[in-house]
Fold this sequence. Notes:
It is built from no helices and ten strands. It is an all-beta fold.
Amino acid sequence: MKRLALPALVTVAVLASGGTATALDAADQPGGEAAVPRAEDYTWAEGRHAVLAPGQAGSSEAQCPPGQVPTGGGYNVFDGGGIDLMVSTNSPTTDGWRAVARNTGSAHTVEFWAVVLCAPGTQTRSPRLAPVTR
């Protein structure tokens, strides 16, 4: 894992499936004041590199360290000449980011891996909203 220097103010992304990530909540702080996480508190992590021959599928998962939650992520790709990659999953997990892909090319090997940006905090679920009726 690498430490990534970011500006002190970071907006935490709303995660898929109704999950939210909160860096630090004011209610958790003494005196009720929200603490702004420092840039050095954020972590950039990479998953296992998957090397895919033509027609082959694979997956990679990047994980946050304990006490941190995913705030965003995706995948990186390196190829030997032409990118022919079909990504079927690119989404957050409870503690990181997961990517699944297939090399749809016929000539070049493709290397890809999941990446995630993590922030201090805990993950909570938002209540499901009632359906809108008309």
